[in-house]
Amino acid sequence: MVEFFQQMINGISLGSIYALIALGYTMVYGIIRLINFAHGDIYMVGAFIGFFATTVLKLPFFPAFLMAMAGCAVLGMIIERIAYKPLRHAPTITLLITAIGVSFLLEYGMIWAMTPQPRAYPNLLPTYQFNFSGLIVSVQQLFILVVALVLMVLLHVLVQYTKAGKAMRAVSYDKEAAALMGINVDSVISYTFALGSALAGAAGLLVGVYYNRIDPLMGIMPGLKAFVAAVLGGIGIVPGAMVGGLLMGVAEALVSAFLSSTYRDAVAFAILIIILLIKPAGLLGKKTQEKV
Amino acid sequence: MLSVQGINVFYGKGIHALKDLSLEVGQGEIVTLIGANGAGKSSTLNTISGLVRPRSGSVVFRDMDITKLPAHKIVEAGLCQVPEGRRIFANLTVQTNLELGAYLRKDKAAIARDMQRVYELFPRLAERKQQPAGTLSGGEQQMLAIGRALMSQPQLLMLDEPSMGLAPLLVKEIFRIVQEINRAGTTILLVEQNARMALSIAHRGYVLETGRVVMTDSASVLAEVDEVRKAYLGG
C-alpha cells in the first residue's frame, strides 16, 4: 500500500510536468488548429536556458526560472512569426510538416551548438526528503507540484477572466468574427504561442532540476507524451490538458512500478490508442450542439 | 460618410467578384444593397470591413482611406459589420459576446451603460445573459450579433442578411430594431435578399448583379421599377 501511494506521488509530480507541456500543445491547437510538434523542443531549450542561467550567470532558482520562461516565450513568438504565420492560409498538412521541420531544426541546431553530450544540472533546490511513515516525498517533488499548480491556476484565471483571455477564446472559435470585433488576431496568436512556450520553458527547468540531466534530444519523448496527455484530456481544452497530464504521469509511474519499467513509454501510446477508439474528443471534450 | 470608389475584387485566379463597384453612404442614412445570390453583396461588405482586399479602387470612411487597413483597425475607425450567418461566439456566454463587442473600448462606465441599452433593446438577451450563446434560437442569435456590434459604438453599422433563416414575424422585429438603431443616430448599410423588407425601411438602394451596380435610386423609386419588381419582389 505504501508502495502504491509512493508511486502516486511520483506520478503526480511527473504528471504536473506533462501537464505544463500539454497546456502549450492544447493552447496552440485551440487557436490555430496546429499540433506544434516543435513544442517538446521548446521545452528542451527551456532546460538549457535554465542551465546557462544557473551555471554561467550563477543565478539562483527563481531568476533562472523566470529567464527560462521568458526566453521560451520569445522563442515561441519567433517560431510562430517566421515559420507558421506565412502559412496562415495554407493547408493543415503544410503547417504540420513545417512544425516537424522546426522540431528537427531545434534538436539538431542544439546538438550542433551544444554537442550531443548530456549535461549535469546543478542542484538548485534542497535535496531534503520528508519521510511520512515510509512515504518519501522530496522537496523537489513538492516544489514541482506547487510551481506547476500556481502556473496552471494563473493560466486558468487569465484565460477565463481577463480581456486577453476572452479575446483568445474568441479567436479560437472564429478568427474572422473576432477581427470584426476589433481584435488583432495576429497578436492574439502571437501571445498564445508566448504563453504556451513559457509554460514549456518552466517545465524544462523543473525537469532539469528533477532528473539532473539534460541533452538536446530530451524533448522528444516528453513532447510526445504531453501531446498524448493533451489528446487524452481533449485537445484545445485547457483544463483537459491539466487532467490528461496528471493521468499520464500517474499511469506511467504505476506501470513502471507494478508491471515493468520497459512499458513506461508504451503506456502513453496505449492510452492514445484507447482514447482515440472510445472517446476521440478526449475526457473533457464533448460534441457541442449548436442551433443554426 | 462612406465612399467606395471603383473596387475590383478577385477570388483565386479566375473569379472577378466585384467589378468597378462604387457606392456612397451618407450620414444618418439607411442604404441597402439588394441582388441575387452571388451578386457580390457580401463581398462588398467584406471588402469594406477589410476581410477581403480589393485589387484596385478605394474605400474612404469619414475622410480616412481605410482600403489597406487591417480589419481590427477598421472597427476602431467606427465601422462595424454584423456578418452573414451571425457568427456569434457560440462557446461563450451572451454577456461575454457583448463584452467582446466592446473589446476596443476602455470607458468602463459607458460600456456598462451601452450593455444596459442593448439589454433594453433585446430583453430576451437579458434573460439569457449567462447562457452559452450557442444555445440561443436563431432569432436570439441575430439579436446578439446586432447587440455585439452595437457595443463597439459604430458610426456606421453594416448588416449582412439579418433576416436569413428567420420566421416572418422575427424578420419584422429585426427590421423594426434596425430602424430604431438608425433613428438613434447610427448610419446603416444593409445587405438583404429580402428586397421587399429592405426597401421598406431604407432611404436609398443599390441593385447589384454579377458584381456590378446596375441601378441606384431612392428606395421608394426602386420598389416601383419594373425590373426590380420582377426580379426581386416577386412581380
Folded structure, characterized:
The complex is a heterodimer of chains A (292) and B (235). Chain A has a domain at 19-219. Chain A contains 11 helices and 4 strands; from the N terminus they run ααααβββααααβααα. Chain A has helices at residues 2-32, 39-55, 61-84, 92-114, 139-161, 163-173, 175-180, 185-211, 220-233, 238-258, 266-278, and strands spanning 119-120, 129-132, 135-138, 213-214. A two-stranded antiparallel ribbon of chain A has the order 1-4. A two-stranded antiparallel ribbon of chain A has the order 2-3. In chain A, strand 2 (129-132) and strand 3 form a beta hairpin. The termini of chain A are far apart. Chain B has 235 residues and is α/β, with parallel strands linked by helices. Chain B has a domain at 2-87 and 155-232: 3-Layer(aba) Sandwich (Rossmann fold). Chain B has 10 helices and 10 strands. Chain B has helices spanning 41-49, 71-76, 94-101, 108-121, 123-127, 138-150, 168-183, 195-201, 219-224, 226-232, and strands at 2-11, 15-25, 30-35, 56-61, 64-65, 79-82, 156-160, 187-192, 204-209, 212-218. In chain B, the strands form 2 sheets. Chain B has a 6-stranded mixed sheet with strand order 6-7-8-3-9-10, sandwiched between helices. Chain B has a 4-stranded antiparallel sheet with strand order 2-1-4-5, covered by helices on one side. In chain B, helix 3 runs parallel beside helix 6. The model of chain B has no long low-confidence stretch (mean pLDDT 93). The interface between A and B is medium-sized, with 22 and 33 residues.
